Every structure is written in C-alpha cells, then in structure tokens.
C-alpha cells in the first residue's frame, strides 16, 4: 500500500549501525559500558519463555522541510498462547492534514475485525490466510528473526566501533533499570556509511522512475470510506523530496531504557537526512519515533463485541494473491 523510500530505509539502517558503533564503548577506560550495551543486543527480546504477552504504545512522525507529512500513534496488545496468538490495537493518524482513527481485533481462525472509528463503520475480514503464508511458516520465520545477536554480528560490531566510543552515556537507576542515550551529528558518522546514502539515493531514484501502476485490488480498497481522501497521501514517497545529490545523515539520536534483565522497556529515536534534488535545492527529512512496552506477561488483548452493531463482511480472498 505504501512503498518505503530506499533512502530513508538505508538512512535508518546506517543510523542504527552508527548508533550501535557509537554506543558500543563506554567513555571510561574499561569495557563495562560496552559489555552492558552488548548484553541488550544479545538478549532475545521476544523469547517465548519470557515474552508471552505485552502492550506497546507507539508514536511516529515524518516531516519534510519543516512541514509535517504524517503523525501516528497507537496502542497494540499482543498475546502468544501456543499456536493461537491474539492481538488488538487502536490507532490514530493524520496524513497531509486528513485525520483517521481505527481499531483492529485479531483472534482465532482466519478472520479479524476492523473498526473505522472515523466513520463508525464495522467490518469482519474473513479468509485472511488466502494467498498468504500459513501460520506455521509465519511462526518459523518469526523464530528465525527473533533471536539474539550472533558471535559474527558481535565481531562486526566490535570492528565498526572506530573512534566513536565517547558519544555514549548510560544511567543506572535505583530500581535496576538503565537508560542508554546517544546523539550523533553528521561529522561523527563515518564517511563510508555516509557514502552509502548516495548509493541509496540512486536506487531510490530508479525505483521512483519504475514505480508499478496501482493494482485493481488497491483500487477496490480505496472505495472504503476509511481510505477515501487518502488516495494521494498513501503514496508517501510522492510527498517527500527526491534526494539525488549530497545525501547525508545530519543527526541520529537514540534513547533506550531496559530492565535489570536487559529487556527493552522503551525506545525513542530521531533521524534527520538532508540532500539536494535534481534542481539543486536543499531539503531535510526528519523522522521521529517512540515506543513503550508494558504489561509483559500480564496483558490480555481486547475482544471485539459485535452485539448491536451492523458488521459488513469483507472477503480477503476476493482481493487476490497478496504475497
């Protein structure tokens, strides 16, 4: 529905690499801070034996040249109960000045409920597994990605630390939690990583030139009231400047709070990318996000109650193969 900009994706990746490198060594002569930070990376944040349920509150903003393009916030409650995961979420967003609010409820079986709170419309979406990966394959893929940092990745991180070891700070709190903060400016990000931004810009320019035409399925989705008026805004790339030259990370900021077992409690970050378009005009794109995790192993997702409501059935199978 919304294709991510390769420039921003690579920028975020470079930012993450730079943050890892920056935070990898403490400012003291010993490696206590470095070891503490790597302990967070090594911890399997979603291991089923310690993470059966949780609530996540999140906020996200994208701005270009000082103008806000997208703001979004929401709360998601998740619970993994064997082979029957359940989830519920409530979200609000404003895209190019258009406000929307909705709720999602997912439980057992191949259906889910979507509530368009903006227009007070209710939908039951059936046959969600049509043309998609089955739950067993999905779980296997999740198990592959939800893992701690490997020895090879740790060695790569150690190698990339370089001279960025003094930009890191950590605060130990009386309750055993720790707050890790880092703020990296353009001049502190290694040149090879900055050069990758130019490579990403070239790839992004090629993808924009060869962007696929809207599918029939997407044209049908846009007929729902929730999406009406958002047709232009949902192609987010068209509203962001196309950075073609002198693309650079201007700033990367990250703050993590973890508990005594190095499990994430909250994360907050900012990413600022600058560059020139084909006309030579300078632009800046800023991305901010934050999230808090609570109710670990003590969260029950909300259940949808269709009583007294007019619920429209939407057959996901009729929208074709969405792989």
Which shape, going by the Cα principal axes?
Answer: globular
Number of domains: 1
Tell me the structural class.
alpha+beta
Strand content: 25-35%
Radius of gyration: 22 Å
> What is the average of the pLDDT values?
77
Instruction: Count the beta strands.
Output: 12
Distance from first to last alpha carbon: 12 Å
Low-pLDDT runs of 5+ residues are: 16-30, 130-144
Element-by-element helix/strand order:
HHEEEEEEHHEEHHEEEE
Helical segment tally? Answer: 6
Description:
By secondary structure, the protein is α+β, with helices and mostly antiparallel strands. The protein has one domain (6-319). The chain is 23% helix and 35% strand. The chain contains 6 helices and 12 strands. It has helices at residues 6-23, 32-42, 135-145, 151-160, 191-209, 216-221; strands at residues 53-64, 67-79, 86-95, 98-106, 112-116, 121-126, 168-172, 178-185, 245-258, 264-276, 282-294, 311-315. It has a 12-stranded mixed sheet, covered by helices on one side. Helix 1 runs antiparallel to helix 5. The longest helix has 19 residues, at 191-209. The two termini are 12 Å apart. The model is unreliable at 16-30 and 130-144 (pLDDT under 50).
